[in-house]
């Protein structure tokens, strides 16, 4: 498990330093560091799973990213590269869970092997260029442009070849991502196929789900930002906040209410608004008589259920997977698609969207997921900013934005869910629970805790490792990890 864990550790342990370094290298904050973390994670997991070509491919892409990062002088230079690589990583990440405990089939093995060789050539070419040219000359060298175009072509071709392996799902994902980069034609299908469902295993985030629900339901209009490193669970949290069902956060709500009302019974009144839309059933929450006195409106709910986000926003809860929407025009199209508004003749998309939002009377909840894509890849960031601020100005629209990194967008006061420095990793207990839910045959043990700690309890890493543990015993995972970590430390020392 080479770079995965150690890199996660380094990244998480030194967020501030890392951010400083990043901002100084690439001022506008195009986030290649998260890409590298993701590639390391994938490489490590694939290595442990014995999918060496996949591991090597991810490793080479990471080296390519590092070369480009070193040579880039500004964010503009690397926007397209960053977008291509992010898309590639997303597809590569799907290989491991899809193959799961099975052996990788020959065809897939061959495809990845060929891709690995292509990548090796690209890496060699880039390394040669990097040695030969000065910083400026490198970046503007004609050959360099060709190498990068080659990288994009090879990457697109490889992704297309995966269609044969994974069928319609990847195929459409690729189309959704690929087409959106070429043109601004976004279909409803593109959006829906890129929209994930809330993960079945979801641990350790009760408090944050509750906070999110509270913010959305207490205010007429809420603006939540879920920020943080790739794989930390931003999308999953957003999905759970918007679709939470009674029970998922009940325990925490119960204790919150008890604590608050004990300290000051008057607070019960404030809670009523919150509870009105929250996740738990009233009868589980407070004694019936207290309910009847203080919460008559709640008590009148016919089913005894109190209300939650679903109830407040009804069907007007929309999820926009922005990784397939790289600029303001495609964001508008995406919005029109999910809102199911058709464009009438003589009007443009913006105009229609604007008048729809202005005239709509009921609360709307928009989840803008992976917003880093339009924010960093659009040539007209200002247009993206204007659009989101315009939406923000519509009194009925609440927004949840998820983004990699530590900074949300625009001139909007975001409530950051998970803290100022972004979504934290899971607590050990939650990581253990997630691991064991995916791999129920694994026993709770000190060994498992060691592994989870080494993974820094990062959700993506925990999930990948739990999947691997179905085919490899824990001792092997730990041994491989320790071995790779040593290799990695050696590499890092050599580098430095
Ligand atoms: N609380 C959790 N418990 C268990 N698994 C989780 C949890 N949160 C996220 N995961 C799992 O971790 C993986 C990554 O989660 P998710 O896609 O939400 O991360 P992300 O931060 O949105 O990543 P990205 O920046 O790549 O969009 C998914 O497989 C998800 O199911
Ligand atoms: Mg996400």
TrEMBL record:
UniProt key word Coiled coil: yes
Domain Novel STAND NTPase: 198-404
Domain of life: Eukaryota
Coiled coil segments of this chain: 105-132
One Pfam family of this chain: nSTAND1
Keyword Coiled coil belongs to the record: yes
Keywords: Coiled coil
InterPro entries, A to Z: Adaptor_Cbl_N_dom_sf, MLKL-like_MCAfunc, nSTAND1, P-loop_NTPase
GO biological process, one term: cell surface receptor signaling pathway
Record's protein name: Novel STAND NTPase 1 domain-containing protein
């Amino acid at each position: 498990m080479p770079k995965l864990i150690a890199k996660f550790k380094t990244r998480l342990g030194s967020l501030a330093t890392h951010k400083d370094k990043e901002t100084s290298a690439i001022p506008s904050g195009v986030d290649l560091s998260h890409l590298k973390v993701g590639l390391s994670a994938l490489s490590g997991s694939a290595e442990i799973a014995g999918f060496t070509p996949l591991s090597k491919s991810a490793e080479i892409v990471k080296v390519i990213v590092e070369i480009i990062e070193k040579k880039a002088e500004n964010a503009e230079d690397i926007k397209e590269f960053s977008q291509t690589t992010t898309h590639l990583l997303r597809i590569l990440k799907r290989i491991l869970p899809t193959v799961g405990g099975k052996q990788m089939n020959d065809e897939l093995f061959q495809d990845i092997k060929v891709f690995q060789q292509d990548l090796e050539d690209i890496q060699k070419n880039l390394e040669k260029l990097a040695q030969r040219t000065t910083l400026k000359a490198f970046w503007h060298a004609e050959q360099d442009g060709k190498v990068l175009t080659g990288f994009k072509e090879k990457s697109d071709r490889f992704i297309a070849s995966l269609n044969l392996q994974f069928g319609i799902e990847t195929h459409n994902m690729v189309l959704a991502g690929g087409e959106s980069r070429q043109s601004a034609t976004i279909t409803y299908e593109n959006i829906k196929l890129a929209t994930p469902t809330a993960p079945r295993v979801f641990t350790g985030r009760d408090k944050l789900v509750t906070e999110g629900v509270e913010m959305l339901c207490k205010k007429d209009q809420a603006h939540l930002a879920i920020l943080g490193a790739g794989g930390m669970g931003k999308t999953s949290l957003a999905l759970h906040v918007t679709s939470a069902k009674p029970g998922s956060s009940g325990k925490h709500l119960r204790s919150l209410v008890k604590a608050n009302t004990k300290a000051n019974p008057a607070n019960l009144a404030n809670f009523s608004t919150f509870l009105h839309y929250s996740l738990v059933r009233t009868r589980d929450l407070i004694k019936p008589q207290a309910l009847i006195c203080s919460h008559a409106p709640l008590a009148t709910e016919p089913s005894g259920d109190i209300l939650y986000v679903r109830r407040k926003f009804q069907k007007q809860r929309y999820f926009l997977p922005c990784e397939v929407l790289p600029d303001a025009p495609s964001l508008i199209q995406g919005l029109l698609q999910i809102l199911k508004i058709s464009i009438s003749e003589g009007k443009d998309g913006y105009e229609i969207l604007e008048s729809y939002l202005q005239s709509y009377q009921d609360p709307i909840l928009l989840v803008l997921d992976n917003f880093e894509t339009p924010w960093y890849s659009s040539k007209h960031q200002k247009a993206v900013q204007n659009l989101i601020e315009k939406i923000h100005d519509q009194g009925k629209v609440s927004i949840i934005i998820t983004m990699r990194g530590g900074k949300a967008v625009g001139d909007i006061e975001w409530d950051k869910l998970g803290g100022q420095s972004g979504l934290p990793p899971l607590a050990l207990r939650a990581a253990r629970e997630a691991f064991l839910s995916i791999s129920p045959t694994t026993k709770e043990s000190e060994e498992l805790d060691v592994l989870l700690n080494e993974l820094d309890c990062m959700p993506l890493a925990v999930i990948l490792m739990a999947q691997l543990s179905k085919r490899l015993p824990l001792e092997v995972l730990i041994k491989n990890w320790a071995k790779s970590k040593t290799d990695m430390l050696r590499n890092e020392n050599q580098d430095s």
